[in-house]
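Lecture 7 notes: from sequence to structure.
We start with the chain below.
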Amino acid sequence: MDLIFLLEGVIMLPTALMGMALNIASIFYFARYHHQRPFHRLLMTLAGVDTCYLLTSSLSFSLKSISQTYRNTVWNLIVPYTLPIAQTTMTASVYLTISLTIERYFSVVKPFYQLRNRWLRSSLILAIPGLVFSLVFTLPNYFMIRTVWSKVPVYGELPEGFQLNQTILSQWNASSPFFNTQTASGANMTLVRAENETLLVTGERLQPDIELASFRDNEIYIKVYVMWLHFIFNSILPLSILLTLNTAIYRKLSTCVEQMPGQLRRSTEGHLRRRELRLARISLLIVFIFVLCHTPKVFPSAFEICGQDPHMVPTLVEFSHLLLTVNSSVNFLVYYLACGKHVCHIFRHRAINRNFQMSQREHCTMISQISEPALHINIVLKRENGLLITETSGLCSSAVEDTEL
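Predicted structure tokens for the same chain:
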């Protein structure tokens, strides 16, 4: 089996379909999530961008590897639109991952700086610069390819009783596949050589074809934009930022849990810190998969910069396309598996809610007194608008925790 057909057709297309289903599911999941944080909204935006990338990349690469009819007809009509959109959404996915990492970096490493700067807690402000840059950076691609219509001959069988004689063969110019002659009744006809047989040209039809813009052959455009700028802004710069920020996050995570006192771990503040750490671990895992899947695409760019054909390594380009598809397909799966325990807690809270039979508008207050040596804390549980709100007061500092039901 052809490796290109195996990678871009047999494997890449089902992976993209599975990824689109998971991403759509994640959009509904996060849209209905009661306690949305900037991290969740960024993940929802990333899922939408990845879905668009999976759809357009499948139309641009996968289907043409599977169907020759699609490649000769539909592909020539849609690729001037699907390929630029795929490149834009791929770049947007890269910079949304950076936005996700920046949000986790300030939440974990510099939380007080984040509290003083509200813009760091806005998913909109974190996401828009990367989305705008992605569109502006890939704008030339929307003018690089266009569909043109060309006339191609329609072939048929030779007239019944017509024979190719030595006179016709001697007059046929070897440099041209076409030859004009006449039938026995004097009608004009055109013959064509097609591989090992001779056919009759019965007419013409219009067929779509692809034409590159003239600036695509410009040497400066190729070296500066296609090679260097893409290599820097789509590979080197994002990978450097992600590795730097996530190294700092990992170092903070390695010391944060160890330094957390036992009393703080059981408090509301400890719960909030553990939630931030859990989201940071999810971000680290997402970025690790991102780096793993985006690193191979550096090599085709490096080959082009060095003046070498990237296809000198068989299936390297197709393999990088497959890894980009995998990366755009698994983010929600990573989040779901990492938060499986948290999802179970959500259902458990709902079970408790059914046991107590609290309605959405009912306010229920339960007060208990906890007495320990030198420690007196009042715990108040309130049911308000579907939230279980815990308020603590006493000799320790008061805190508030919102728990999803």
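Points to note: The radius of gyration is 31 Å. Strands lie at 145-156, 178-182, 188-194, 197-212, 365-372, 375-384, 387-394, 399-404.
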